[in-house]
Amino acid sequence: MSRWQELTGGTSGGEYAARFEALARGGKDVHGEAAFCSALVPAGARVLDAGCGTGRVMIRLAELGYDCVGIDLDASMLDVARAQAPQLPWFETDLADFDPARLGVAAGFDLVVAAGNVLPLLTPGTEATVVARLAAVLVPGGLLVAGFGLDAAHLPVPPTITLPEYDAHCAAAGLTLVDRFATWDAVPYDGGGYAVSVHRAAP
Questions:
Q1: Which residue in 7, 76, 121, 125 has a CA-CA distance of 20 to 30 Å to 158?
Q2: How far is Cα 125 from Cα 118, in angstroms, rounded to an integer?
Q3: CA distance to 126, 136, 196, 203, per residue, from 118 (Å)
Q4: Which pTM value belongs to this model?
Q5: Contact 95/134 with Cβ under 8 angstroms?
Q6: How far apart are CA 181 and CA 146, in angstroms?
Q7: Are 132 and 172 in contact (CB under 8 A)?
Q8: Is the distance from CB of 95 to CB of 122 less than 8 angstroms?
C-alpha cells in the first residue's frame, strides 16, 4: 500500500480540491507547477501528469495547449478530475505498475511531471521502479520534473527519499540532472527542505 493510501484512505479527493479552490479564491496563484512546465516545453508538447490527483496541474496545462494524460492511484482524486475535465484522459493506475500500452496510451512524452510529493508518498521500496517506468515513456531528450519535500516541515509523513537517492534512481534509468530549484517559481535550490528537480533523457 502506498503511503498516500495509508495517509488518506483514498477518500480525500473532494477535501483536497476544496483546499486549492479556497486558496485560489483568496488570490493565491495555484498554477505554479503548470507555469514551470510550460517554460520547459512548447505548447503542443505531450505531457504525462504522474500522480495527477484532482487534475489541477494537468487541466491548466491542457488550457495552455498541451496534449496531456493523467494517471493516479486514488479513485477519489480522479473522480474530481473527471468531473472538472471529462474531455481529458484520466487513468487509475499505480505508478509502479504503469504500462502505457496496457492503458491504450502511446508512449513518447516530451515531459513527465510528478508534483505534490508524489515520490515520498509512493509504496516504500518502489521508488526506483517508478522512476524507471516514468523515464521509459520519455522521448529522447525528454524531461522528468519532480517536486517533493525532503523534511518533516514539507511532508505529511516522515521523509523517505533523499535527493542523492532520487538522483541515483534517475541515473540508473538513464536520466541526467539538468537543474534543481527550491520552488516551482524557479528559485535556485539552496539546500532546503523542498526541491524541484529537472532530469533529461538521453538524446
A1: 76
A2: 14
A3: 12, 18, 12, 26
A4: 0.90
A5: yes
A6: 10
A7: yes
A8: yes
* Cell reading at 144: 522528468
C-alpha cell at 186: 524557479
SS3 per residue for the chain:
CCHHHHHHCCCCHHHHHHHHHHHHHCCCCCCHHHHHHHCCCCCCCEEEEECCCCCHHHHHHHHCCCEEEEEECCHHHHHHHHHHCCCCCEEECCHHHCCHHHHCCCCCEEEEEECCCCHHHCCCCCHHHHHHHHHHCEEEEEEEEEEEECCHHHCCCCCCCCHHHHHHHHHHCCEEEEEEECCCCCCECCCCCEEEEEEEECC
> From first to last of its 203 residues, what are the pLDDT tens digits of the chain?
776 667 676 666 556 555 656 555 666 655 799 999 999 999 999 999 999 999 999 999 999 999 999 999 999 999 999 999 999 999 999 999 999 999 999 999 999 999 989 999 999 999 999 999 999 999 999 999 999 999 999 998 899 999 999 999 999 999 999 999 999 999 999 999 999 999 999 99
Tell me the three cell numbers of residue 185. Answer: 517559481
Cell of 100: 502505457
For the beta sheet containing 67-72, the strands, ordered from the edge strand earlier in sequence to the opposite edge, are 90-92, 67-72, 46-50, 109-114, 138-149, 194-201, 175-181
Say how far residue 47 (Cα) sits from the centre of its chain: 10
